[in-house]
Fold:
Amino acid sequence: MDMSHMPSTVSTAPIGYAIVDTAIGAVAIAWSAAGVCRVALPQRDRAAMERRFAAKLEGAEPVEPPAAVAAAIDLIKRYAEGEAVDFSNVPVDLDGVDEFRREIYLAARKLGFGETTTYGGLADNAGHPGMARETGEALGRNPVPLIVPCHRIHAAGGKIGGFSAPGGSATKERLLALEGVRLGPPPAAQKAFAF
Structure:
C-alpha cells in the first residue's frame, strides 16, 4: 500500500507506538492503520518524553510495529548514523491536518537528504507564493519531523530559522550537520540541545 502521498480524511486513531534508541537519542514514533502519525525527536529526559508522547496518543499502546513502520524506524536509525536516507515513501497519516499544511508537508517531503530551501521557497514550491510566514507556522506544527523534513527549511539569507522540536534551532542545526549542511548560527533565544 503506497501512502507516500497525503492520506484521505478518513478518521484514523493511533493504534501503536514505539520508542527507539538511535545515535542521536531516543525517538518516539506512533502509527495508525494509514501510516506514521507522530514522531518525537530526542529530549534530555527520556522518561518524561515517553510519558508526554504516550499521553497524546488516545490510548495507543507500545506494540510491535507493522512492516511499513518497522521500515520507517530502520530509516530513522540509519539517518541518525548520518546515512543519506529517503523518507519520501514512508506512509504518513495526517488525519485532521488542513489542506494548506498538507500541501506544505508534501512539498517538504520532496527535499532530499542535504537539500534545503527557504520558507518562501517552500511556499512557492507548494503553490502558495508569498506565504513564507504561514509556511513557517505550518512547519512548526509538523507532527512527523524527519519524515516531513521541516529541519531542511530555513530563513532567508542563510539563517537557520526556528525549530519547534526540543532544543530549538540548535537541534535543527545538528540535524542539518548530519546531512553536511551548515547555515548561520541559531538565534540566541533558543537553548542548545545536545544529542
User: Anything to note?
Assistant: The longest strand covers residues 16-22. The beta strands are 16-22, 25-31, 36-40, 61-62, 117-118, 153-154.
